[in-house]
Design brief:
The protein is α+β, with helices and mostly antiparallel strands. It has 12 helices and 7 strands.
Length: 284
Amino acid sequence: MNLKLIILGIVLLFFACKTEKQQDTDAKEKPIARVFEKKLYSEDIKLILPKNSNPKDSEIFVKSYIQQWITNELILHQAESNLSNDDKDIQKEIEEYRKNLLVYRYETELVHQKLDTAVSEQDIEAYYKEHEQNFMLKDNIVKVTYVKINKKVPNVDKVKKWYTSKDTKDQESLKKYCIQYADNFFLDDNTWLLLDDVMKEIPLRDYNPELLLKTSRQIELSDTLFNYYLNIKEFKIKNNPSPLSFEKENIRHIIINKRKLSLIEQMKQSIFSQAKENNNFEVY
């Protein structure tokens, strides 16, 4: 039978409202594909067809599934034909996987129910001070404001004044202007950014990063379409201590992970101690 007709039949079967059990039985009895002695039935595919899909998408899904099923079964047959009986005996591996999966799911549920994920600023600061030597910068970081703006927009010259100004009114004017006209901008100069990320936004690829940071604070560049304004407020060079504010989220994750490992270890010790007390195990 033509494959396209088979696929169309499956799709129609999926979208049809069948009321008689005999129709389902008949469909089940007619295979739509075979690999050696194994057969694939339309009902097998109908059960896994994505819900709410239209006929065209369903046809694509069915065709892909049949092809994948045939490929997988051919490879499986090849493996079973060529592997030794010892190699095909995977019961031990299956049982080991089952055990590990059950333990993992139990630990996950335990963590979900009992792990304290609230980390205070004091916890973060204390951890940072205790392990400060572990927090060394791997990249250059900066606190900046930058603006990328098309040369054709009005009042571009005002940006030159605003982007370096410390005056609150100027900063607010710059923000409103950027929201309306800028192609890209970043005005939160309290946040550390990777210099490499900033250099992707502004054409600074020909600059030596360390030299740039040490010699330039305000940079104005242009190309055929855009003007770029960069004001470097603060910087840290790589291989130097990383600032706490840059490491906060990292430290938060470290603390939570340590609590997680401690919780799991406590669970293991508790189960072991209770089993020992109840004489639930012994070593011969």
